[in-house]
Amino acid sequence: MIRFENVTKRYADGTTAVDDLSFEVAEGELVTLVGPSGCGKTTTMKMVNRLIEPTEGRIFLDGDDISGIDPVQLRRRIGYVIQQVGLFPHRTVLDNTATVPHLLGVKRAKARERAAELLDLVGLDPATFGDRYPEQLSGGQRQRVGVARALAADPPVLLMDEPFGAVDPVVREHLQNEFLRLQQAVRKTVLFVTHDIEEAVRLGDRIAVYGQGRVEQFDTPSTVLGAPATEYVADFVGADRGLKRLSVTPIEEGDLEQPPVVHLDDPLPKDLEGAGARWAVVLDGENNLHGWISAEHARAGTGTVREHARRMEAWLPVGASLKQAFSTMLQHDAGWIAVIDERSEGRFLGVLTPARLHEALRRSTAADARDIAREDVDLETVASITAT
Ligand SMILES: Nc1ncnc2c1ncn2[C@@H]1O[C@H](COP(=O)(O)OP(=O)(O)OP(=O)(O)O)[C@@H](O)[C@H]1O
């Protein structure tokens, strides 16, 4: 969808900002460009919408050499989100979002209708926020308007330059999650610039790690963390890459353990301990997760499971990251968490225990070309780092 072919950019003062860059971003793929300040990320990005022209090389969009496309036409195919957002201060949130479609000839009422849908999509209720002015929004809310506005013309490509850079870490994580959900729905081809490796790893289908003007490694987050191509990349992703790996490794069905299972209307299981279990998972009639029951309660109680079952607080959908699993365990002080299939209304799949989490982490590590040091994936190390 976007292809860089031996692209170099030298500024008039002789600075080589980008040096012989070649890579390709597939349709619907989200590629993060990450690297230290001044390494050429923004220059790369701005060459795609022709805010900057390359000195050498060519860039293709959907097979067309962009140097042959009129910049105004080109930019209609490309949404652009920047850190400072650049909302029009004297226009309401709704009008800000509707601006581009309106400029493209969509009737005002229609453009506003679409803008309201988009605000909803980025998590801003149009009834509450639509008539506000940018200065009446928080930083995070302004960023969301920026994203909604970039999506308004429904461009196939989005360029995002540190879009969440100006907000605090909590809001930032929230925006990242929302953006990932949004991307699932809209599947744009996205180039996303950040200097934060955590953000790059979290969001990217693939990551381009920049050194000075050059891409040192272009690969999946898991491979970049597990098998850094160069010393430089290893340094950049950091010594705690085992920990970062938690956030890019999803829980798979094969990782789960199958505990004893009882149903709500079953008689109490009297001998769970005899079967070597301290608890059982409780399911409803549809085999969806209801809760759990301890062996002790089951042994001492009377009646059916229903009267003694406790609500399940620590659960996650399959596909959630090991990091989420780990933090859910810590948050609920739980020795295990239940994993469900959200697509089938909560069907219970099994439980993840610390031992299984550790195995999953090993699996993900072993999948890479080069092993990372064993202590990097040691769960106790992970626990001690996360707890501090
Ligand atoms: N107009 C310009 N003239 C001369 N040099 C420039 C110009 N714009 C950028 N540069 C230089 O090109 C290099 C790459 O800049 P660029 O903005 O692409 O980096 P970046 O990776 O996006 O950095 P940051 O994370 O700080 O935004 C830097 O050394 C910068 O000083």
Automatic annotation (TrEMBL):
Keywords: ATP-binding, CBS domain, Nucleotide-binding, Repeat, Transport
ABC transporter domain location: 2-237
Start and end residues of each CBS domain: 309-367
InterPro entries tied to this protein: AAA+_ATPase, ABC_transporter-like_ATP-bd, ABC_transporter-like_CS, CBS_dom, CBS_dom_sf, Gly-betaine_transp_ATP-bd, P-loop_NTPase
SMART domains hit by this protein: AAA
Family: Belongs to the ABC transporter superfamily.
Protein name, per record: ABC-type quaternary amine transporter
Organism name: Streptomyces silvensis
